[in-house]
Write a structure and sequence with these properties.
The protein is mainly α and 227 residues long. α2 packs antiparallel against α8. The chain is built from 13 helices and no strands. The mean pLDDT is 97.
Length: 227
């Protein structure tokens, strides 16, 4: 399954736009309960206005909330970003820390966000258990755990540490493009032969192919037809 995912999504990566650890951690905080696409629409203006942790710590709340409004829950997210900036300034000299134990102490940052930052900003392997990841690894029978931390540890025992970050990207890509929550594209899935949940969605190729999304669609369908 790992080999198949690697062939399906060789260039999988974080779908949030960023150029620094601070920009990434802010983008991940904003991605809660909205799409990466929406976050990427908001962050250019945000990053141009707030360039350092101190900028967020000193932000005018009304101005910040207005920039964040399109992402939803903008008041709570503004609180998190102001608190995040203040914590980074007060405890980490304005720099994003490189240890998960320190990252999870920051406002708005849980293990999921911490692992995204470690893997994508610092090349420190981490498993990102978002809703897609948890759903797919349970569907595949890799674990029965529901708690994200337990899922992270269970999958971490199955997969070499060096592969954790890319695994996270590829599983999330697959969840967004093929293995949908309500109607997975089983008949057009390159993992079908190894999936214990095959049949949860339509198994006919033509019907399933209509459900496959994303820029990799043609490549994924060609993989299935070539199997």
């Amino acid at each position: 399954m790992l080999r198949c995912l690697a062939e399906a999504y060789p260039d999988a990566q974080a779908e949030l736009d960023f150029t620094s650890p601070l920009e990434l951690i802010v983008a991940v905080v904003l991605s809660a309960q909205t799409t990466d696409v929406r976050v990427n629409q908001v962050t250019p203006a945000l990053f141009a206005r707030y360039r350092t942790a101190a900028d967020y710590a000193a932000a005018d709340r009304t101005e910040l909330e207005e920039l964040l409004r399109p992402t939803g829950f903008f008041r709570a997210k503004a609180n998190s970003l102001i608190g995040l900036g203040a914590a980074l300034v007060e405890r980490f000299d304005g720099e994003v820390p490189r240890k998960i134990e320190e990252l999870v102490t920051l406002p708005g940052v849980g293990r999921k966000t911490a692992n995204v930052v470690l893997g994508n900003a610092f090349d420190i392997p981490g498993i990102t258990v978002d809703t897609h990841f948890g759903r797919l690894v349970r569907r595949w029978g890799w674990t029965k755990e529901e708690d994200p931390v337990k899922v992270e540890h269970a999958v971490g025992e199955l997969i070499p540490r060096k592969d954790w970050t890319m695994l996270s990207h590829r599983v999330i890509f697959h969840g967004r493009r093929v293995c949908h929550s309500r109607k997975p594209a089983c008949g057009a899935c390159p993992l079908a032969r190894d999936c214990p949940s095959y049949g949860a969605g339509p198994t006919g190729f033509e019907e399933a192919a209509k459900l496959v999304k994303g820029p990799e669609r043609d490549h994924l369908l060609a993989m299935v037809q070539g199997q």
